[in-house]
Automatic annotation (TrEMBL):
CDD domains xrefs: MFS_MMR_MDR_like
Region (Disordered): 1-20
Transmembrane segments: 26-48, 60-80, 92-115, 121-144, 151-172, 178-201, 213-234, 240-260, 281-304, 316-335, 347-366, 372-397, 418-436, 442-460
Gene3D superfamilies per UniProt: MFS general substrate transporter like domains, Multidrug resistance protein D
A Gene Ontology molecular function term of the record: transmembrane transporter activity
Protein name from the UniProt record: MFS transporter
Lineage: Bacteria, Bacillati, Actinomycetota, Actinomycetes, Streptosporangiales
Species the sequence originates in: Planomonospora parontospora
Membrane topology of the entry: Multi-pass membrane protein
Protein localization: Cell membrane
Amino acid sequence: MSDLAARPADPGESAGPGGTGRRGPLLLVVGLAGFVTTLDNTVVTVALPTLQAELGASLAVLEWVVTGYVLTFSGLMLAGGRLADVYGRRRILVTGLAVFTAASLAAGLAGSAGALVAARLVQGCGAALILPAMLAVVAVAGGGRERSAGVAVWMASGAAALALGPVVGGYLAQHAHWSWIFLLNVPLGVLCVALAMAAVPESRDGTAARVDVPGVAASIAVLSAGTFGLTFAAELGWTSPVILAALAVSVVSAAAFAVVERLGRDPMVDLALFRARAFTGGVIAQVLWGLGVNGVFFFTALFLQGVLGFSPTASGLAFVPLALLVAVVTPLVPFAERRLGAARTVALGLVLVAGGMVAVAFLRAGDGWAELLPAVCVIGIGSALTMPLGSAVLGAVPEGRAGVAGGVFSVAREMSGLFGIAVVGVIVNGAASFTAGYSTGLLTAAGLVAAGAAVSLVTLR
């Protein structure tokens, strides 16, 4: 494979470093934007009973308050990355922040479940513009150290949001009003817009004359249909005509997308990017991490409550140390990366994650915090050490394709989690007991994560 990182920026590309005076505000934008978009993935779930009581809606309708956001967020990320490259990364970032903030206000003021679901769908659209544009800004704002710092801030802020989301959502729903779950985004969003306008330099792919409309349409069909199928498969069943149709649409659209991108004059995703060893390896390692970790976490709350006897509150708190460790350790990872190199740092992290998952797989009834907490902490530290994956992927492509690279990495991160849930779900449902299926699923997931370590050692050197 070739190393596209060695290539100069595309001719005609406009970009500029942020400068030392802008570095702090730029990282603050990255941190705040990463925080609010991740928070809205987790903050709502614990408030669903309150929403059901106050809005008088069925749980089936309220499920869309959660899945609607995920659906548009995942479905539009790749398109959002290319729009950032073509029309300007700061412009798309600010647009996404404005859309997200306005939709948050609409969600907080919603008087019905339908209005709330509509606002959440629009929120996801805004987030799909924010994330790839933000990663593209990080990619072109400076050299390797600046890129690593930006990715570290993004990961740390996301981990903090994962830890705080259920706590904040539960507190606001119980002690204030559910609307504040969404309204708290408004001042943060306004601040992000102001900082982005002041601190983020504009950059774009100067060689792109137009948006690849067929490619955008095909990518939206692939990701939206795939997200829908994987999200609702457990509820409707894998043999449901609706699920089979959704997955068929996703597969056919993926084939059409590959043809369109291969033959198009100005493809949204230049398939030549995958010749870059670090780009392809980083994406594969990210997918393997997501398949393993996210797939297991979905079922771990059931394991903690049903097998270990944890209360709902205790099972929710079980992963707070993990998320906090990611938030605390991630900013320190660039120092480890400079000593060990990206390949060994990521591989070490993935080995630690796999080892922690194996330890959890052997927990049995009667075990408690003393047995669980060390494994959870090891997984948290290991996950933090995977931070160089994002920097490697963003640094492996010409700057003109930074938005697309951010989109591909974001899609790998989100979609692998959905696939992981589906894979572990099949294992759990096919086992003689939940405990046996959970342990088998966990060991399978640990194997996938360990395979990611091998991929990292080979491709990120």
